[in-house]
Specification:
With about 200 residues, this protein is an alpha/beta fold. The protein is built from 6 helices and 6 strands; from the N terminus they run βαβααβαβααββ. Helix 1 packs parallel to helix 3 and helix 5 runs antiparallel to helix 6. The longest helix is centred in the last third of the chain and has 22 residues.
Length: about 200
C-alpha cells in the first residue's frame, strides 16, 4: 500500500508504471487521500494562500490511476478521507462525487485528537450521522469473493464500533501493536512507533 495526497500527478503515475513494469506479479495498492471538497481540501493541503490546485491534482491522479488499471489489472486504487471538524459536513457529498465520477466508494477514517491538530475530532453525533449514511455493503470490495467481502464488511463494522466507543471516551478494545507491527509516518517525515 502506497499512500499519496495525489499532488504530483506525473511523478505518481510514472513511478506507479515503473513499479508495475518491473514487478509484473506484484499486487499494488495506491491510496489517494482527499481531505474534503475542493475548497476544504485545498485549504488543508496548501494553507490559506496556496495556489488552489491540490484538489484538482488529486482528482487528476485518481483519473489517471483508473486509466492505468485497464493496462495493469493488479493495480488497486483506494480513496480515503479522514473525518474531522473541518470536513464533517461535506463528507457525504464527497462520497457521492467520488462514487459518481470514479465508481469507487470513499473509504473513511476518523480523526482522533492525538499529535498535532488538537480539537479536530468530530462529535459522536456527527460521526454517527456519517456512519448511518454509509452503504451497508461497501462496493469497494466488489471484486472480493463472498467470504473475503464478508470479512471486510465485518471488519469495517467493528472499526465503526471502536470509533463510537472512542468518542464516548472509552479505551480501544484492541491491544496496541505500535512498534511491533506498525509505525506512524508523521507529517514532517519522522517515523514513530506511536501517534502520541
Amino acid at each position: 500500500l502506497i499512500p499519496t495526497n495525489g499532488s504530483f500527478v506525473e511523478n505518481i503515475i510514472g513511478k506507479t508504471k515503473n513499479i508495475l513494469d518491473n514487478c509484473p506479479d506484484m499486487n499494488l495498492t495506491i491510496l489517494v487521500s482527499l481531505d474534503g471538497l475542493e475548497a476544504t481540501h485545498n485549504k488543508i493541503r496548501e494553507g490559506e494562500n496556496g495556489p488552489g490546485i491540490a484538489f484538482q491534482n488529486a482528482i487528476e491522479t485518481i483519473a489517471s490511476l483508473k486509466e492505468l488499471q485497464k493496462k495493469y489489472p493488479k493495480l488497486m486504487l483506494v480513496i480515503n478521507s479522514v473525518i474531522h471538524k473541518k470536513n464533517v459536513n461535506e463528507i457525504l457529498e464527497l462520497m457521492r462525487l467520488i462514487k459518481n465520477n470514479f465508481g469507487i466508494t470513499l473509504g473513511i477514517s476518523m480523526y482522533r485528537d492525538v499529535g498535532i491538530g488538537k480539537n479536530l475530532q468530530p462529535s459522536l453525533t456527527d460521526w454517527r450521522r456519517i456512519r448511518g449514511s454509509l452503504p451497508k455493503e461497501s462496493i469497494k470490495y466488489e471484486n472480493a469473493g463472498f467470504l473475503l467481502k464478508t470479512f471486510y464488511n465485518l471488519r469495517d463494522e467493528y472499526q465503526y464500533y471502536i470509533n463510537d466507543n472512542y468518542l464516548r471516551g472509552n479505551a480501544s478494545p484492541i491491544k496496541c501493536v505500535a512498534g511491533r507491527f506498525i509505525a506512524v509516518l508523521d507529517h514532517n517525515g519522522d517515523v514513530k512507533v506511536c501517534e502520541n
